[in-house]
Amino acid sequence: MDRSIRPLVIVASFAASLLVGLLVMFWAVGGMRGVTAPAAIGGPFQLTDQAGQTVTDQNLKGKPTLIFFGFTHCPDVCPTSLFEISEVLKAMGKDADRVNAFFVSVDPERDTAAAMKDYLSSFDPHLKGLTGNPEAVAKVLSAYRVYSKKVPLKDGDYTMDHTALIYLMDRDGRFVSPFNLKRTPQEAAADLKKYL
Questions:
Q1: CATH topology of domain 46-193
Q2: Exposure pattern of 54-93 as b/e (b: 16+ CB <10 Å)?
Q3: Pick from 193, 194, 163, 179: nearest CA to 84
Q4: What's the angle, vertex CA 45, arms to CA 73 and CA 177, rounded to 5?
């Protein structure tokens, strides 16, 4: 190839790659006619809180909601996340009454309403634990695109691998974004207050 043409070929190849990348990105976000947008996060569910009360997706409406999926036998990620959520709720003061905060079990075999009540007694009282039968839990996990898998341990017991994300839902029950807890409780509380 002629050396004087070579830079032009490289530039043309880069431009073509950039164009293809932009078209793929445009298509992926549903910008082209007839193409559906990416799957939504959230949807109908019916679970039971630690007091034995039924909670559905309709309970999310009217307040911003933080949702964390985990299990009561979790050794570190779950208690740490629930503690951090508790600190944010505490930093909100009276406005914490205007927020929903749910801890949804990925381990319905062990996480009964009574087990959830006992476990959550160590955290902010605004936090509600949600559980249900395996089918009901599987439905909410699917709706929120939560990964969850039982992992056997050597002693015959088991643990759970799971998505460790805090979901922020708006007052209409729609997913906004993952909620960042890697900041001061005051900063996180100020951010959450924007959705009241």
A1: Glutaredoxin (3.40.30)
A2: ebebebbeebbbbbbbbbbebeeebeebbebbbbbbebbe
A3: 179
A4: 75
CA 84/CA 144 separation, integer angstroms: 21
Task: Domain ranges for the chain, please list them.
Answer: 1-38, 46-193
Q: Which two tokens stand for residue 163?
A: 């998505």
pLDDT recorded at residue 22: 34
Q: Please give the Cα distance from 14 to 36 (Å, whole number).
A: 29
Cβ atoms of residues 160 and 148 within 8 Å? yes
Distance separating alpha carbons of residues 75 and 70, to the nearest angstrom: 11
User: Around Cβ 111, how many Cβ atoms within 10 Å?
Assistant: 25
- pLDDT tens digits, one per residue of 88-107: 999 999 999 999 999 999 99
Number of other residues whose CB lies within 10 A of the CB of residue 147 = 12
What token pair was written down for 72? Answer: 């009561």
The pair of three-digit structure tokens given for residue 48, joined into one six-digit string: 């039971």
Count the Cβ atoms, other than its own, within 10 Å of residue 175.
17
